Structures are given as C-alpha cells and as structure tokens.
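pasting ParD-like antitoxin of type II toxin-antitoxin system for the record, 88 residues
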Amino acid sequence: MGIVKISENMHENLRVASDALSRSINAQAEHWMRIGMLAELHPNLDHSDICRLLIRAESAGGLDLKQLCAVADIAQGSQPHASSGASQ
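structre below
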C-alpha cells in the first residue's frame, strides 16, 4: 500500500461524499478510482453499466483488472483483451 497525495479541495470532496454515502474516506477514494479506471478503459459505458460490472466482478470473487476487462468485453459483445488493461 502506498500514499497518494491529493489536493485539499479533493480531500474535502472525498470527506463530504464519504459522509453522505456512509463510507470511509479511503473507501470513497477507492470507489472513485475504480469508476474512473473503468470509464477510461471503456469510454462507451455509462455509470450504470460500470456499476453493474463492479457488482458482477465482486460476485465473481472481487475486483481484478483482467476480470473486469473480460466482463466488460462480454457485456459489449466483443472479444476479451489479449493482455490485461491494454487499450484497443
């Protein structure tokens, strides 16, 4: 585990969101990172599609980049990526 430095403004945003959503600040930051990672890997998916992917991944044993890419490819009707996280 490492330390990530963020601006005071972003930390305040995390604090407000974590309070509102009953998550720790770290859990809220990790949630936003997951959503952002998937949004960048699959820009054609909307937020509800990404949330469904995360739920499927969790049901299948947890968040794994290779697994999420494969699930996203299946949801999009395309072939799985040859390598983990590689953009096509």
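Residues 8-76 form one domain.
Residues 79-88 have pLDDT under 50 and may be disordered.
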